[in-house]
Every structure is written in structure tokens, then in C-alpha cells.
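ATP-binding protein: C-alpha cells wanted.
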Amino acid sequence: MTQPVVGELVTNARKYASGPAPSDPRLVGDAVEVAVGDSEPVLPAVRAADVGRVGRHGLEIVRAVAQDFEVRLEPVGRRGTAPIALTDDQGRRIAGRDPCRRRAAKALANRTDPARPVLPDRGLLPQA
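Answer:
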């Protein structure tokens, strides 16, 4: 599961910024933390999922596979970090089999209104 995340982050860095795209994968506990930097001085726009859109699905892939995704501005450019679990929390199975479950659990933990529904594949539903 690490290879597609590294590929997408490096591809984005090379496609949307000039200069080098240093990557820094490292083992942190039961996860591989992938960090990729580039010279672009603005945060990336994360688009809503759209199956009809051709291309520009890289960050969707990263967010679906990684445990988290964070981009920070640096003195020169920005750095995206994505930890990827090596095993699932339950049963020590290989991770990445059910990213929707992870996202739904995170949405449930972060919601402030208990009556607000949560869908496993989309997180919190917008309030009407």
C-alpha cells in the first residue's frame, strides 16, 4: 500500500512544482511515514471525489490509503506527510483493505451532534 502513496505524492510534487521533490520514508511504530516536499508555496486543493473526472485523483488515493494526510508550508515550499499502517488494528492483517471503516470511525469520534448521521464511505453528512 505504500507504493501508490509515494507514487502519487512524488507525481504531484513533480507535476505542480518546480525543483527537487525530496522524499523521506521512515518506519514509525507499525506504520511507514512517507513525507514528500516540493517548492510550491501554497497548500494543495483537495477536490471532492468525482468518478466522472478524468485525472486529478492522486490526493483521493492518498487519503483513502493513508491513516492521515497533512501538508505543511515550509520556509521554502511545502511538505506532505502520510503515515501508512503496515497492519490493521484488528487481527494484524495487512492494512488498507477497508479505508472507509477508518474514515467513518474518525468522523464518529469527531462529530459534535450525536443525531447527525455518518456514512461509512463519506464521513459526516452535511447538515441540512
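Residues 118-128 have pLDDT under 50 and may be disordered. The beta strands are 26-28, 31-38, 70-73, 78-85, 118-119, 123-124.

Cheers.
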